[in-house]
Amino acid sequence: MQLRYSFRLYPDAAQQASLARAFGCARVVFNDAVRAREDARTAGRPFPTAGQLSRKLITEAKRTKERSWLGEVSAVVLQQSLRDAETAYRNFFASLGGTRKGRKLGAPRFKSRKDARQSIRFTANARWSITDHGRLNLPKIGAVKVKWSRALPTTPSSVTVIKDAAGRFFASFVIDTNPDPDAARMPATESTIGIDLGLTHFAVLSDGTKIDSPRFLRRAEKKLKKAQRELARKQKGSKNRAKARLKVARAHAKVADARREFLHQLSTRLISENQGIAVEDLSVAGLARTRLAKSVHDAGWSQFIVMLTYKAARYSRTLIKISRFEPTSQTCSTCGHRDGPKPLNVREWTCSACGTVHDRDTNAAINVKTAAGLAVSACGAPVRPGAIPAQREETGSHGFPTGRRAAQRHSDQSRKARILGLQPEEQVNCRR
């Protein structure tokens, strides 16, 4: 499987100027490719091929006075920028055709030098290398100091240099790794767990463990507001405004880094301690459109599930995602009785069938584990709730009319039942 290793770079002043030049040249080539495509679409001509764009926008452009400065950076950086434009258009057309999963993508847009994130990529033919002193030697940039936090398992074929909104530089390596040594390094276990994600507690486990939500954004909100006020008061285009913008970006980066570190530690602990993990497939995008949007984004549920997914594949664990429509908060985990929906302020409830007092989140976590088939009964057999047959009116597979016709038919049948003086259970038979 492919894993990404990211390390912090510390370029000096001259290297930062060379990197800024490379970022600018890659951005210009990308924008020229998008402009050439748009001009061809407007004129009704076929799109230019990758070879035609490379020859026109790089090879021939270097010989002109207006684009002669493209020769100051590595040609591999420019070629990779063209490849990024081709990939963006390919994903756009696949999204239009419905062959690409996920949300719909728009057409590629022009890049700006004011973009928060800028990047360039060097492949193997660029002849970049790692020196004996642990520096990253990049063509036409020099040997850049790297903070190595761990060793690379194999030799990478490419490196991407990234500058984020906070002005930090990173080197990102994508490496093909063998998951077998990782799986052997983490021994198998018979423990399984169900996870209920929430806002009061970040996660509640089926064994009763409650993990508090750190709420990194809420805790840093006062500092962020102050930095944002200072930015708003600075004159646009001034150097003080640039300094204030950098201060805001660094404050947000600190929050994001703390959240990412927390999610990594928690996901690694859960993966190492449990062979099977069950979670809900939450609609985070839908929840982020409610009044709880800030808290939902602050929790980082999507990022946490992504970490669980790739770590489970890496360490030979089982991750099961149950449907978001599973009534985990409405069902008694003891007897299986469905007690109906409850408002969010109800944190404990008593089952009307068996009288068991449930903690809302712990009960939901147990139901998540049961719905995933990870719960085991006393005889050793897996416990999974059986399918509940839907009522005929609920299945939607019998060709019943919908909308106004269905409402009119239901009204006519109910009026007929009242005229005949039938009881409620007889009314159901009458409608059938």
Q: Helix coverage percent of residues?
A: 40-55%
* Average of per-residue pLDDT values: 85
Give the class from helix and strand content and strand pairing. Answer: alpha+beta
Strand order of the largest sheet: 2-6-7-1-5-4-3
Q: What is the CA–CA distance across the termini?
A: 55 Å
Biggest sheet overview:
7 strands, antiparallel
* Strand residue percentage: 15-25%
What sort of overall outline do the alpha carbons produce when their principal axes are compared?
elongated
Which spans of ≥5 residues are poorly predicted at pLDDT below 50? Answer: 377-407, 415-432
The multimeric state of the shown protein is single chain
Q: How would you characterize the overall build of this protein?
A:
The chain is of the alpha+beta class. The chain is built from 14 helices and 16 strands. Strands 2-6-7-1-5-4-3 form a seven-stranded antiparallel β-sheet. A five-stranded mixed β-sheet has the order 10-9-8-11-12, with helices on both faces. Helix 1 crosses helix 3 (75-97), helix 2 (50-59) packs antiparallel against helix 3 and helix 7 packs across helix 10. The longest helix is centred in the middle third of the chain and has 35 residues, at 239-273. The chain is elongated. The two termini are 55 Å apart. Residues 377-407 and 415-432 have low confidence and may be disordered.
